[in-house]
Here is the input.
Amino acid sequence: MSLLERLNEDMKQAMKNKEKEKLSVIRMLKAAIQNEAIKLGKNELTNDEELTVLSREVKQRKDSLQEFEKAGRNDLVEKVQTELTYVDVYMPEQLTEDELLQVVQEAIKEVNATSKADMGKVMGAVMSKVKGRADGSSVRNVVQQQLS
Here is the structure.
């Protein structure tokens, strides 16, 4: 079952259960996926492309969450946290720190990285392997630790 089909099923269920917030988030995700398909000139996105859209949506919400917390907007913080819980349901299982460390170490060996100057090469190799399963800032932190 593709992500769009799953979203359609969940949307029907949310309508039946009268879950307004969940329905709103699902519609937003569907719109983001459909907009990306239009942008790329395709009828359907691949799983990787759908995952990229989901990752982007999660990142946007996390960034908003930080800004709202800084501004002391607790009403918006709660709203964004709720949205994040609904979006996280569609994300693949996240890597543990040990799994991420292992992927980073393999990538360092693959690209023969020796210093922080090689960080870009390592990040590129790691991000393509962990797409959607690890957030960029945590990957960056692990890569920096390993290269220093």
Remarks:
- The CA atoms of residues 116 and 138 lie 16 Å apart.
- The chain has seven helices and no strands.
- The radius of gyration is 18 Å.
- The mean pLDDT is 86.
